[in-house]
Design goal:
alpha/beta
């Protein structure tokens, strides 16, 4: 069986980096990361790029260190399938720009480029992602190309479309770990090519618990609500119905005319804060595995130690600044929002072959076809996931007019979105330890 093919769209702060490391630590039979597409979000997109390049640089050092010390080099997927890296959106489609550098630090990794500059490669690579800079430098200029990824000077959304054109339809999953701006731009430019994707797996939103930037909104959806709302609408039998009003007068292209087949609906699975928040990484869990490795000289353990120590310290500072009070587990431990999303793609529908030594046990639980819509322009509800909390019956297929008194078609069988929602995981307790052991090459011990 071939590996699962994925595009990871991300805004690399701390848990994004852990998610990328978890994906790239896969075996070559498990996962093939075709593209890492970068967006603004936790930080500005140039710092996202800097963090990504630093990660690949550290992984080169790590594999070399492991080989020199008689260890398995790991990161087989990365070694066999070096991904493309492309830079994308700098700001949301519409509305005010928001970033989360108050938590992740200005550079997104708690100041790691200052505290551990020896793990940040010299910035002689930035022109590789900028076509204009390449032209100014001259096409004959010699540049050292990194060996474990391929830089692209095309915008990220165009790289998404290129890959979807080149791969067989229904074989590539797009994983959204940040604001969905790049993904929406790809769909806007060429919807039919975009719908060749097998599915879109989204870390974002919150349904029943508090938001993490407003009382009702999760950061990724708040940061670019129009992109989330547009992508959600593509799951609908009638996409135009849930498309948000736009200042740019954006509309969907007209549907294909017979005898052409109808345009397919997008498959979208949501992994919201409701399920991710309580999958926690403690400082003790992290250090119990990595401290001996860091002492032995592991570049990856040392690098991650710098920025995760900064994260745990920041969480303590934020708790004190908020007035202290009773500490909830998520106030002092790191919620593994993005890594859990990678864990889902590895272990669900179907699990990757002969994979995952000693993972948490249990099964994923997914609710199918929920009508969830994203509020794009509300004064106090920007980015909120809206769903029907009433207990009224759904209309039958033959009831063309729907249910009397139902405004906006929440109870109409041919209106509204169709979102699959992850509501249960194989286990909260064991995931963090397993993830750390897998990334740092300790799964066999």
């Amino acid at each position: 069986m071939p590996p699962k093919k994925v595009i990871i769209d991300t805004d690399p702060g701390c848990d994004d980096i852990l998610a990328l490391l978890l994906a790239l630590s896969s075996s070559a039979d498990e996962l093939q990361v075709l593209l890492v597409s970068l967006t603004f979000g936790n930080i500005d997109v140039q710092n996202a790029l800097r963090n990504t390049v630093a990660m690949f640089y550290v992984l080169e050092l790590e594999r070399k260190w492991r080989i020199e010390n008689g260890r398995k080099p790991g990161f087989e997927s990365l070694a066999k399938y070096p991904p493309v890296v492309a830079v994308g959106a700098k700001e949301p489609l519409e509305g005010e720009k928001l970033m989360a550098d108050y938590f992740h630090g200005i550079d997104g990794l708690g100041g790691v480029h200052t505290t551990a500059p020896h793990f940040s490669p010299r910035e002689t690579w930035s022109h590789l992602f900028d076509r204009n800079a390449q032209l100014e430098a001259g096409e004959t200029a010699q540049h050292r190309m990194p060996e474990n990824f391929h830089p692209s000077n095309a915008p990220a959304h165009k790289e998404i479309l290129r890959i979807l054109r080149e791969e067989e339809p229904g074989t590539v999953t797009i994983i959204a770990l940040g604001p969905m701006t790049n993904i929406a731009l790809a769909a806007e430019e060429d919807l039919d090519t975009f719908l060749r994707a097998k599915s879109v797996l989204v870390m974002g939103g919150t349904l029943y618990i508090e938001g993490n930037v407003t009382p009702v909104s999760e950061f990724n959806h708040y940061a670019c609500p129009f992109s989330a709302a547009r992508i959600y609408s593509l799951t609908s039998p009638t996409p135009q119905h849930t498309l948000p009003p736009s200042r740019t007068s954006y509309t969907l292209p007209p549907p294909p005319q017979p005898p052409a087949p109808p345009r397919p609906k997008l498959n979208l699975t949501l992994i919201p804060l409701d399920i991710t928040t309580m999958h926690l990484l403690s400082a003790d869990t992290f250090s119990s595995t990595t401290a001996p490795l860091a002492a032995a000289g592991s570049p990856l353990a040392q690098w991650c130690g710098y920025f995760l120590t900064a994260v745990f310290n920041k969480m303590e500072d934020l708790h004190v600044a908020a007035g202290g009070g009773k500490r909830r587990p998520q106030d002092i431990h790191l919620s593994l929002h993005d890594p859990l999303t990678i864990y889902f793609i590895l272990t669900h529908d179907p699990p990757t072959p002969h994979t995952l030594p000693n993972p948490p046990t249990g099964k994923w639980k997914v609710q199918k076809g929920r009508d969830i819509r994203v509020e794009a322009a509300g004064q106090w509800t920007r980015g909120m996931c809206i769903f029907d909390r009433r207990t009224r019956r759904m209309a039958e297929e033959w009831e063309e007019e729907g249910v009397v008194g139902d405004v906006d078609g929440w109870l109409h069988p041919k209106l509204g979105n169709r979102i699959d929602v992850v509501v249960g995981s194989p286990g909260e307790e064991g995931f963090a330890g397993w993830m750390v052991r897998r990334i740092f090459g300790k799964v066999d011990e």
